[in-house]
Design goal:
Distance between the termini: 29 Å
Number of helices: 10
Mean pLDDT: 95
Helix content: 25-40%
Largest sheet: 10 strands, mixed
Shape: globular
Low-confidence stretches: none
Order of helices and strands: EHEHEHEHEHEHHEEHEHHE
Structural class: alpha/beta
Strand content: 15-25%
Radius of gyration: 19 Å
């Protein structure tokens, strides 16, 4: 199943992963997982009250210079797991009461995860599967998820090719992400929801909304780059309208040291997005007719959106 000339992501680096060679993403022959646990900071119909059953995969094909999850993107955190253990992780999240199973940064393991999902479903997994991606995907990879991914939770980072090149080494990001998003919408259709019970402390039951099909497109406002965000929102609204739900985020958190090459070249990455820019972005979305989008209240970057990648839930007890 592992490729002898890897083309699982748009980098198409040609690594012989079947022989253990590592690709541009950093991944070789083994699936590496850094955390498997309930997560409460996704969009409301993803996390709900019960939490999303997130499985965080190590390594990443995009490697943004400002990455908030750098320890896993570089593979510094995580442990190798078998396909059988990956199936168990999904079933364990279901046992914990998760609203869904959420594959975080899965691109470079896509066919392996798809095989594990099919095995898990054969063993009783009946939760929606969420594909949580940076948006830099091949159309072939997305088409391979037919019958596997129910919900796509995808980034759309850039409308500006130079910004994509400088920050993510991907000058082709716009064209690649649009083609992938077209395919996600084709496969998943317009957003659909159900309601499922959640039993809280004291036994009180509340109903929680859950997305069962559809696409949520996340866009992170970058400090000093409001124009890029306005262009992204305008493009997505014109192309997809209500076929996707937008999530406009202000949670960018500076993680670079001031002496790092990226910060030296782009000092704005040492800042937080301004409240004024974020309000301008939200006002723009309202003005052009974006309906029912997600937004973040207050200075979201001050909250704990970055979990500990300490192998929680990864190894059997």
């Amino acid at each position: 199943m592992l490729p002898r000339s890897c083309d699982w992501c748009p980098r198409a680096c040609g690594a012989n992963r079947a022989a253990g060679q590592r690709g541009v993403c950093g991944a070789g022959a083994q699936v590496r997982v850094a955390r498997s646990a309930l997560h409460f900071w996704e969009e409301p119909p993803i996390s709900g009250l019960a939490g999303s059953g997130t499985i965080f995969f190590s390594y990443c094909p995009l490697r943004c210079v400002y990455c908030q999850n750098r320890p896993i993107a570089l593979g510094d955190a995580g442990a190798d797991v078998s396909l059988g253990r990956l199936v168990e992780l999904m079933l364990e999240q279901q046992q914990l009461g998760a609203l869904n199973v959420n594959m975080v940064t899965p691109t470079h393991y896509g066919p392996l995860i798809a095989a594990a999902v099919r095995q898990a479903r054969a063993q009783g997994l009946d939760l929606p599967v969420c594909w949580n991606t940076a948006g830099y995907e091949t159309v072939a990879a997305i088409r391979g998820l037919r019958g596997v991914a129910d919900v796509f939770l995808t980034d759309f980072k850039y409308a500006d090719a130079e910004m994509a090149r400088a920050f993510s080494h991907a000058a082709d990001y716009l064209q690649v992400a649009l083609a992938a998003l077209d395919c996600m919408v084709e496969l998943s259709g317009e957003p659909r929801y159900d309601s499922v019970p959640f039993r809280g402390e004291g036994g009180q039951v509340q109903m929680q909304q859950r997305m069962t099909r559809g696409v949520i497109v996340r866009h992170l406002l970058m400090p000093g780059h409001l124009d890029n965000s306005l262009a992204v929102v305008q493009l997505l609204q014109k192309r997809y309208g209500n076929a996707v739900r937008l999530s406009l985020m202000n949670q960018y958190t500076p993680v670079l040291g001031p002496d790092s090459p990226a910060a030296q070249a782009h000092p704005e990455l040492l800042e937080h997005p301004s409240r004024e820019d974020y309000e301008c972005l939200l006002d723009f979305a309202d003005t052009i007719g974006v309906q029912d989008y997600f937004w973040q209240d207050g200075q979201a970057d001050e909250e704990s959106f970055i979990p500990a990648f300490d192998l929680t839930g990864v190894m059997p007890e």
